[in-house]
Design brief:
Layout lengths: L2 H9 L6 H10 L1 H9 L4 H14 L15 H22 L10
């Protein structure tokens, strides 16, 4: 990507879409853009960003990020749980069928 062109269009008032904003944030361009707009000189920019990153809290070792299930996985899990409950209820209910005549 050409950072200069991205900064140019942002300076012209371009509003990135949600997905483009996420991409710019992951690449660190959003942070750099805000600092440039704040008046920090380009030569000092990388040093300031490194300084800010050092101040951020670090992840605790052994502690993993919680992963949220996607919508499809959550729906499947809910359907499986509902089916399991229905099976348990059917097994626990007494047999109410009419006696056979014979």
């Amino acid at each position: 990507m050409d950072d200069d062109r991205i900064y140019y269009w942002l300076d012209q008032g371009a509003q990135p879409s949600e997905k483009v904003s996420i991409l710019l944030k992951k690449l660190g361009l959003t942070e750099r853009w805000r600092m440039l707009r704040g008046g920090i000189a380009i030569p000092d920019l990388d040093a300031k960003i490194a300084e800010r990153r050092l101040k951020q809290p670090k992840a605790v070792e052994g502690k993993e990020k919680k992963q949220r299930p996607g919508k499809k996985k959550a729906a499947k899990a809910a359907a499986a749980a509902k089916a399991a409950e229905a099976t348990k209820a059917a097994e626990a209910a007494p047999d109410t069928a009419a006696p056979k005549e014979g």
